[in-house]
Amino acid sequence: MATIRRRKSTWQVQIRRQGHQLSRTFRLRTDAELWARQVEAELDRGGLPTDGRKLRAHTLADLLRRYEVEVLPRKRSADREVYMLRVILRDPVARLSLHLLTTTEIAKYRDHRLALVKSDTVRRELAIVRHCIEVARKEWGFMLPSNPVQQVKMPRAGNPRQRRTYPGELEKLLKACEASRCRWLPAVIQLAVETGMRRSELLAMRWDDVDLEARTVVLRNTKNGFPRTVPLSTRALNVIKDMPRCGPTVFAISANALRLAWERLRRRAVFWSCASMIFDIRQQIF
């Protein structure tokens, strides 16, 4: 049986069994009890005891940086996940040593992020941390008794996107593109609206996979890993025909550069729309 003692403002757990003596300190008694149950269950299954010194010597940030180098390059969503990793690494939770990384700390991170971004974003960030810890436990020799992210309640998934552009919205966006330095932006927007393709799919399009005669494009790098053929409307076909060929891919721009260009465009379009509305109201009054 585990022994749990209060030591000032913390709770210390000690487990003695089969020649092993394990101990760990927690801020909350509930975390101490959960860890004790998990370690005892692991010992009952014949698992290896936790190496406390190794866990104290490494932080979550150490695992995330190794994950970025060894795991992310093999994933299709690498560009997007690199950006999310940067966000996680700036949070205090990344500086915690692994022996202090509890469900309580992960829950605090979740609640802090939910006050800043949408629930789907937080779900994706937690999924990265969860996978990183699983890889560390199974392949990197970090004998964590459990994955604390798996014990935390995930935020509710957002509603699926069904909205289409309202009359005049697309025209306003394309008008705002005239002030953008990103020459690819108008074509990306029009093809996204016409085909419903994801950003990653648009940026992965290759000229070799575009068939102007058949009016189709073959997408080989898709989310589910299976290629699919997308029909091209007349407008989409004309957009592609007017594009310059600057390399093997249709769009010679990175995902992050496109994201930044889109954010600037959106702010500019909102500003112009508000300015136009204010001007119309002033004309009516004066």
Describe the structure in your own words.
With 286 residues, the chain is mostly helical. The protein is 50% helix and 10% strand. It folds into 3 domains: 1-49; 60-155; 169-285, hpI Integrase, Chain A, CATH 1.10.443.10. It has 11 helices and 6 strands. The chain has a 3-stranded antiparallel sheet with strand order 1-2-3, covered by helices on one side. It has a 3-stranded antiparallel sheet with strand order 4-5-6, with no helix packed on it. Helix 3 packs antiparallel against helix 4 and helix 7 (169-176) packs across helix 11 (255-285).
Short summary:
This protein has 286 residues and is mainly alpha-helical. The protein has eleven helices and six strands.
User: CATH top level of the largest domain?
Assistant: Mainly Alpha
Unreliable spans are: 277-286
Approximately how much beta-strand content do the residues carry? 5-15%
- Tally of alpha and pi helices: 11
CATH topology of the largest domain: hpI Integrase, Chain A
Mean pLDDT over the full residue set:
83
Overall geometry comes to elongated
Radius of gyration, Cα only, in angstroms?
A: 26 Å
Number of domains: 3
How would you name the oligomeric state of the polypeptide chains in this document? single chain
Record the SSE blueprint.
Layout: E1 3-7, E2 10-17, E3 20-26, H1 29-44, H2 52-57, H3 60-70, H4 78-89, H5 103-114, H6 119-139, H7 169-176, H8 185-195, H9 199-204, E4 210-211, E5 216-219, E6 228-231, H10 234-241, H11 255-285
Antiparallel strand pairs: 1-2, 2-3, 4-5, 5-6
Helix pairs in contact: 3-4, 3-6, 7-11, 8-10
